[in-house]
Amino acid sequence: LGHARIFTFFSFKHCVLWVIVKLKEKHLVLLRDGRTLIGILRSIDQFANLVLHQTVERIHVGKKFGDIPRGIFLVRGENVVLLGEVDLDKECDQILQRVSIEEILEEQRTEQQAKQESERLKLQAVKERGLSIPKADTLDDF
Amino acid sequence: LFRRFSFDDDCTLEEEEGLVEEEDEIDQFNDDTFGAGAIDNDWQEEHARLAGLDERVRDEVDGAGDASSVDLSLSGSNAHSSAPPQPSSSSRLYPSIDERGGGDLAESLTHLILGSDPAIAGVGAASSDRSLRPLMLSGQTPQPSALAGQSSLLLSYQQQHQVMHRGPAPLSQINSHSIWENSMGFSPVSSGLLTQKEDKTLMSIIKEVGLPNRPPALSREEGRDFSERVPPPRSSSPVIGSPPVRAVPIGTPPKQPMSHVHTQQNNHPSAIQHVRASMPLRYPPPFPERLSPNNLLSIASSPLSHSPFPAGVGPVLSQIQRAQLLNSQVGPFQRGPAPPLLQGGVGGFRPFFGQSGPRVGLHGPPLGHAPIRHNTTHLHPQHRRMLNQRMQNRGLGDHVGGRGVGDRKNRDPYSNLMTQREKEWVARIQMMQLQSTDPYLDDYYYQNYYEKMEKRQERDRDNRKEHTTKLITPQVAKLEHTYRPVQFAGSLGKLTVSSVNNPRKMIDAVVTTRSDDEEKREKQVWNKRRQILYTVEKMYSLLLEVQDFEKKFLQTPEHQRDALLEQHKTHMVQLYNSLREKEWDDRVSDKQCLMIMSVRKGKRLISRLLPFLPQPHAAAVVMGIARNLPALAKKDKHDQVLCWLVEPVTTVIQSMSSTSLTDLLQELQGSEGQLPLVLQNKFGVTLLYLILSEGERMQSSDPNCQLMDDNRWTELVFSVTRELLKVPSSALSSPLFTPPNLVSLFSRYVDRQRLELLQEKLQITSLTR
Predict the structure, then answer these.
(1) CA–CA separation, B50 vs B305, rounded Å?
(2) Which of B263, B261, B123 is nearest to B180 (CA)?
(3) Coil, strand or helix: which one is A27?
(4) Scanning B42, B331, B600, B602, which has its CA 20 to 30 A from the CA of B304?
(5) Predicted pLDDT at A80
(6) What angle do CA B332, B336, B339 make, to 5 degrees?
(7) Rounded CA separation B147/B169 (Å)
(8) Which domains does chain A have, with CATH numbers?
(9) Do the chains contact at B446 and A7, CB–CB below 8 Å?
(10) Per-residue pLDDT tens for B272-328?
């Protein structure tokens, strides 16, 4: 509120320059819908639209992850949450365990179901107590 | 029109001319909307070609050896061309034109031309750093640089006429314009200086060259991209937000043969030199006031170049400046009125430039090699140092690795989808946004962070010789770039050229609200909320000013301090006014208070505001809160943030007089039935305890305090105690904290039994927190 531009000069410029310098390296992109894409960043523009090559969508569930090859991605800039370079050395030694696509999708489904279930229970409990969870539009934003 | 130079293999020039007339009307729109590229080659073909080309290029490059040693080897590479040798040219001309010349003639031309001037060499990604010296068309690598040959041809035309006539400047002039300003497809070619005959040959050359795409292979010494991708021609829009312009936008009058391009001697060093359209594409510069990104950026950042930081400007910028210096002699090409800003900028820039001198062969930074020194004026010097260090480290690392990896990189056919220029362009656009007139406003946290760092360093170093550098941020005037539609002199109305890259509003849509009853009600609620938020936010901005007052006060010089003080007082008054009922009534308006406190933001606001209000006002506000506590409690059910107010309220209470304290307690109790409601709310209980505790403190510290002067206090406490005893424990909320002296307070007023009961109750409640 009032001073909204946190670290603009430092981080933004730095990041922009670095990303541009580091084109053609493997990058990890986190999208607004929660997906994680890993690919070679080929092109970027002022809206942070990205062109990713040989992209792989990585799904993480717990300690496991699975990669789905996707090909070429053109991501609209507004949907990008994070973009960062993948350290190829660090990528090799990680605690996460890679599994097959089917397995990871299965895991994801299970996780989703569990989450939905808990949400439902919570809602029910809240209702029973006569409370209500406010809808998003009644909250004023910070 | 540009069509004449379509890269269509099949038409001959003569046929095309006929075609052009017909298709003019039909395809005009198309051309611009979808870009010349869309009608030209099949992208798949092109892609395949490019991929294939890259292979070839790489191979050739590997075999080429040091590119810099190439001088007149163009001829060798251009063996395939079918264009006849240019009669009028000297032996320097290379008759052959590679049919596989790059699809983007304009771009390659620019590259070559830009590369030609040694002072400007190494401008951007696409340009070769082989200087096509004016005298020696030593040039490109022995790559199938069709366009190298091609443009050398054109260049030599130019040179023929210009160099002879006017001196060595032309190339630099051409180069002096912004990289992107290559708007006319064949702009590098001097328009007026070609005779008809040359024109024809030129066109034929161009036509032929415009054929299969063939990126001019460029190679540099280290780290350079070895395959150059030529992007398809884009639709024109020389405004910000679009990459290099190549075609001519809609609305420009059809080309007419012009005998001589008017050239103005431009002795003014500050004018931007733009290249006129070539003969075949002779259009008056339709958008003199529009500036391409780089232009704009150069304007915007040229004042910034005054900074003491060396090499703080990107290569393009310095190229422009350099070129302008060199340009002072001749200006055969000129595009329209020079943007005023650049004048000042460039004029001032010269001395700076004199120091550094034209740097020959300053390349754009190859990947990871030299740090990209874009406009770093806003970076704190420390920070910049750190950045540079970091970059150097990485650069070294990359460089070493790069050498070994270079081969591998070569094999990556997609490695250069973004030309260096494009990268710089994007980076520059983004950095333009970082310019600011008031860094404290725009980048508060960063500034503060570095200030603290500075102070810390100073403290650590104990003021050694090596003094900490101060951050000097230049105040850049914010430029307003409003779009003014194109106007031709003497015409009626304005032309709005719309294209893919600069969409323009075509329809005026008017919004009509439907009156649905439910919708209305909902909207009303929403509107009310919005109104509240709006008020709160306005107050917030005042509050922020007030909060920053102290800091600003310390920074302003003596003579301005009074004014600042006045301003501060006004802010305070305004703030309080928004809480008041009427201007002359010092009481706090209940309605306003309630309204503001009904939103979370408002509560936060009040909690932040209270410390700044003078005592009587603050007390009035607290009174208002106490008075309306039940309503507030109800509204706070969702947010549960009333407790934010505890701290500031505590401070206020502790500075209250006994009468006001009594008043406050009375307000809190209010009418019948208020107290139980108060007790139900955490904040209410806390407030009550605070008041009681304060009263107790007063009494115990000062035996003859006024608290006991009238019976009000005693009575109030009695009724409170009664209530506390009466209320069931479940309805008693636990406070945020229990002041320790409550017991002594109650011991004054109640008998032992009741005291014990109370203790139990309150202790219970405090334990069950």
Answers:
(1) 39
(2) B123
(3) strand
(4) B331
(5) 93
(6) 115
(7) 22
(8) 24-138 (2.30.30.100)
(9) yes
(10) 434 443 344 444 444 444 444 455 445 444 444 443 434 334 444 444 444 444 444
Tell me the pLDDT band of B171, cut-offs 50, 70 and 90: very low
Q: pTM, whole model, 2 decimals?
A: 0.39
Q: Is the pLDDT of residue A89 over 70?
A: yes
Give the tens place of pLDDT for each residue, B58-104.
555 554 444 444 444 444 444 444 444 444 444 444 444 444 444 45
Chain B nearest CA to A50, separation (Å): 11
Structure tokens at B93: 């001309």
Cβ–Cβ under 8 Å, residues B104 and B231: yes
What is the spatial distance between Cα B157 and Cα B155, in angstroms, rounded to a whole number? 5
What's the rounded Cα separation, in Å, for the pair B45 and B213?
10
H or E segment and range at residue A54? strand A50-61
Provide the sign of the torsion angle of the four alpha carbons B579, B581, B583, B588, taken in this order: negative
Could you tell me the two tokens for B643? 């407790």
pLDDT for the residue numbered B675: 82
Reported as a pLDDT band with limits 50, 70 and 90, residue B56 is: low
Q: Which two tokens stand for residue B516?
A: 């649905």
Asked whether the beta carbons of B379 and B387 are under 8 A apart, the reply is yes
pLDDT tens-digit readout, B223-260: 444 444 454 554 444 444 544 444 444 444 444 444 44
What is the per-residue pLDDT for B305? 42
For range B186-211, the mean pLDDT: 46
- For the record, the structure tokens of B258 come out as 């012009």
pLDDT, one tens digit per residue, over B428-469 is 888 887 777 777 777 788 888 888 888 888 888 765 555 555
Structure tokens at B212: 């299969």
Whole-Å CA distances, B355 to A57, A71, B32, B352 = 52, 50, 45, 5
Most confident of B2-11, B194-203, B675-684: B675-684
Q: How many residues does chain A have?
A: 142
Between vectors from CA A20 to CA A16 and to CA A21, what angle results, nearest 5°? 115
Instruction: Give the residue from B433, B420, B340 showing the smallest Cα distance to B378.
Output: B433
Q: Report the C-alpha gap between B173 and B334 in whole angstroms.
A: 9
3-state secondary structure of B614: coil
Closest Cα in chain B, distance from residue A1 (Å): 9
Q: What is the mean pLDDT of residues B380-397?
A: 65
User: For residue B422, what is the nearest residue in chain A, using CA coordinates?
Assistant: A45
Contact B317, B352 (CB under 8 A): no
Give me the DSSP letters along B297-351: HHHHHTGGGGSSSTT-S-HHHHHHHHHHHHTTS--S---SSPPHHHHHHHHHHHH
Residue type, position A14, single letter: H
Measure the CA–CA gap between B247 and B281, rounded to whole angstroms: 10
Residue A140 has a pLDDT of 55
User: How would you classify residue B336: left for phi > 0, otherwise alpha for psi between -120 and 50, otherwise beta?
Assistant: left
Alpha-carbon Rg for chain B, nearest whole angstrom, is 38
3-state secondary structure of A69: strand
Helices and strands counted in chain B (H then E):
28, 0
Calpha distance B66→B302 (Å, rounded)? 36
- Among A25, A84, A12, smallest CA distance to B427 is for A12
Residue by residue, DSSP assigns B88-129 as TS-TT------TT--S-HHHHHHHHHHHHSGGG-S-STTS-S
Query: Residues of B near A (CB-CB distance < 8 A)?
Result: 241, 365, 367-368, 372, 374, 376, 378-379, 383, 387, 409, 412, 414-415, 417-418, 422-424, 426-427, 429-431, 434, 439, 441-446, 449, 529, 533, 540-541, 544, 599-601, 638
CB contact under 8 A, B426 and A20: yes
Q: C-alpha dihedral over B53, B55, B58, B63, to 10 degrees?
A: -100
Q: Give B26: exposed, middle or buried? Use CB within 10 Å, 0-12, 13-18, 19+.
A: exposed
